[in-house]
């Protein structure tokens, strides 16, 4: 997959680009609803003997329109790229969302980013909007197309009679419902990062942990103890993760640490990139008066998590 970053106004011209079928959207999460849009674009491209593409945006519009610089992403940009490549997309356009872009009229957006990129067919969800204040949408896109491309509108995708959406996934993550998130995404939520040196308390109490330096832009589930998968150099291991502030050992801490005890794994991981797959929430983080109480609880956690993971194979 070829990745191209664009900022308005870009300098690309249609005659230097292949005829393309594009999926349009922000696509945070690339959940099952998004996948329906993207797979339709890939399929339509194959049918028309064209290239498939995705046009997405970065950063999130709320960063620019609402001055919200605390946005967290279900799929940070690097993961979004990996998922799109697995879906068979030929090229990815990452468009910088800034005030200039947000001020474009629907016609200016279409002329520059659809017609101007040699796109011959657009696929988007029924609720996709574009142009200043979202005045362009899939109901009026034909008016702006100048007869130069076709389009396909994807209806709402629902699970349990409720729309599959990034908003729904965010709400589920806030409640620790990572199993349901897996169902909506069609894959587990993942968090990647580098293993860094921690305070080594886990090793001292018999539960050595890998401390993960994860991206500040990554949306995490609520703090607590989880059953997880751990991908190391392409191999998956089972693990139990603690996401929180370590209240037994720290006070007045606000930043969340992510530590993973990788079951039956004993190699050195410092400096290595690993990927955490979130499987199931087990309990909230607790403050223990005695370290012995914490150790006993962790033994119980390990047994429960081993039992759970053994049934998932």
TrEMBL record:
Keywords on record: ATP-binding, Coiled coil, FAD, Flavoprotein, FMN, Kinase, Multifunctional enzyme, Nucleotide-binding, Nucleotidyltransferase, Transferase
Membrane-spanning ranges: none
GO biological process, alphabetically ordered: FAD biosynthetic process; FMN biosynthetic process; riboflavin biosynthetic process
Reaction catalysis annotation: riboflavin + ATP = FMN + ADP + H(+); FMN + ATP + H(+) = FAD + diphosphate
Pathway in which this enzyme or protein is active: Cofactor biosynthesis; FAD biosynthesis; FAD from FMN: step 1/1; Cofactor biosynthesis; FMN biosynthesis; FMN from riboflavin (ATP route): step 1/1
Stretches of the chain forming a coiled coil according to its record: 284-311
Any one Pfam family match given in the protein's UniProt record, by short name: Flavokinase
Riboflavin kinase domain location: 184-310
CDD domains per the UniProt record, alphabetical: FAD_synthetase_N
Keyword flag ATP-binding: yes
SMART domains, sorted: Flavokinase
Enzyme Commission no: 2.7.1.26, 2.7.7.2
Domain of life assignment: Bacteria
GO molecular function: ATP binding; FMN adenylyltransferase activity; riboflavin kinase activity
Task of the protein: Catalyzes the phosphorylation of riboflavin to FMN followed by the adenylation of FMN to FAD.
NCBIfam families assigned to the protein according to its UniProt record, in alphabetical order: cyt_tran_rel, PRK05627.1-3, PRK05627.1-5, ribF
PANTHER family in the record: RIBOFLAVIN KINASE (PTHR22749:SF6), RIBOFLAVIN KINASE/FMN ADENYLYLTRANSFERASE (PTHR22749)
Sequence similarity: Belongs to the ribF family.
Identification of the protein by name: Riboflavin biosynthesis protein
């Amino acid at each position: 997959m070829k990745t191209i970053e664009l900022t308005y106004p870009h300098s690309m011209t249609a005659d230097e680009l292949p005829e393309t079928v594009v999926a349009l959207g922000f696509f945070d999460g690339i959940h099952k609803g998004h996948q329906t849009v993207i797979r339709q674009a890939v399929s339509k491209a194959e049918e028309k003997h064209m290239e498939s593409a995705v046009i997405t945006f970065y950063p999130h519009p709320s960063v620019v329109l609402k001055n919200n610089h605390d946005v967290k992403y279900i799929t940070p940009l690097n993961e979004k790229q990996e998922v799109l490549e697995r879906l068979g997309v030929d090229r990815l356009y990452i468009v910088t969302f800034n005030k200039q872009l947000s001020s474009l009229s629907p016609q200016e957006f279409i002329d520059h980013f659809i017609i101007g990129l040699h796109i011959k067919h657009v696929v988007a969800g029924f609720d996709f909007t574009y142009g200043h204040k979202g005045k362009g949408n899939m109901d009026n896109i034909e008016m702006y197309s100048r007869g130069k491309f076709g389009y396909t509108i994807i209806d709402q995708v629902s699970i349990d009679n409720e729309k599959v959406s990034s908003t729904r996934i965010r709400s589920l993550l806030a409640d620790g419902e990572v199993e349901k998130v897996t169902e909506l995404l069609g894959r587990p939520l993942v968090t990647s990062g580098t293993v860094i040196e921690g305070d080594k308390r886990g090793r001292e109490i018999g539960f050595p942990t890998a401390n993960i330096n994860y991206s500040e832009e990554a949306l995490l589930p609520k703090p607590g103890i989880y059953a997880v998968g751990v991908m190391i150099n392409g191999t998956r291991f089972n693990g139990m993760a603690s996401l929180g502030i370590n209240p037994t050992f720290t006070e007045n801490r606000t930043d969340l640490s992510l530590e993973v005890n990788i079951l039956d794994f004993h190699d050195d991981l410092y400096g290595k990139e690993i990927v955490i797959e979130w499987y199931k929430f087990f309990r909230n983080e607790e403050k223990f008066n005695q370290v012995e109480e914490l150790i006993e609880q962790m033994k119980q956690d390990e047994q429960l998590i081993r039992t759970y993971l053994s049934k998932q194979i």
